[in-house]
Amino acid sequence: MDLLAEPLMLEKLPKSLGRALDGVRADAGDLAVAHTELTGTHATIELGSPAFSYNQMIPSKYTADGAGVSPPLKWDGVPEEAVSLALLVEDPDSPTPKPLVHAIAWNLPPQDGSIGEGALGGEDHHTRVPTGKNSYFSDDYLPPDPPNGHGPHRYVFQIFALDTRLHFEKPPGRSALLDAMRGHVLAKGLHIGIYERS
């Protein structure tokens, strides 16, 4: 069964199946931020959100049960020599072989800053941040949408300061982003939000 065959498929799983799959999860060791051979640095950028504290519940507004808009994010500690920033949002608790990708953004301005609510894949093209392909192959923000009864899911917002700008012929997926970042990461940071359907 292909759990990624259609958007919101995980939401449609019966609660009993969600509970049965509770032990089936991707691995946090597969998160981009955990790949030291790729990123080669400690987390020194402070990434956070005014919408939820570290390791706390994500308000339903920012999930598939609400408006489904991306949360606001802010960061500081970007090194002066940075040329661009990349952002990757993943769920390491998805019942899939690898963490589920919720958003990709690249070539963000290389300084301490922020993005507003709805900026990832938002409809307002004046404030929208260009986004890559999520796990459903859409260049949009995929809001948290865990299976009913599967337990809490961690949504890991990861930011990377790079010594170069990234160039893609089309919106990149996770593999293309990581390949392009390899050897160019100066610093990184993360912020984790939790969401669960009981």
Estimated helix fraction: 10-25%
The coarse overall form would be globular
Order of strands in the sheet with the most strands?
Answer: 2-8-7-4-5
**Unreliable segments (pLDDT under 50, ≥5 consecutive)?**
1-8
Give the helix tally: 4
**What portion of residues belong to β-strands?**
25-35%
Q: Major β-sheet, in short?
A: 5 strands, mixed
Overview of this protein structure:
The chain has 4 helices and 8 strands, in the order αααβββββββαβ. By secondary structure, it is an alpha+beta fold. The chain has a 5-stranded mixed beta sheet with strand order 2-8-7-4-5, with helices on one face. A 3-stranded antiparallel beta sheet has the order 1-3-6, with no helix packed on it. β4 and β5 (100-108) form a beta hairpin. The longest helix has 8 residues, at 174-181. The chain is globular. The chain starts with 8 loop residues before the first helix and ends with a strand. Mean pLDDT is 83; it is low at 1-8.
Would you spell out the secondary-structure blueprint of this structure?
Layout: H1 9-12, H2 15-20, H3 36-39, E1 46-48, E2 56-57, E3 73-76, E4 84-91, E5 100-108, E6 113-115, E7 153-162, H4 174-181, E8 185-195
Parallel strand pairs: 2-8
Antiparallel strand pairs: 1-3, 3-6, 4-5, 4-7, 7-8
Summarize the structure.
The chain is built from 4 helices and 8 strands.
Features of this protein?
single chain, 198 residues, five-stranded mixed sheet, 4 helices, 8 strands, disordered N terminus
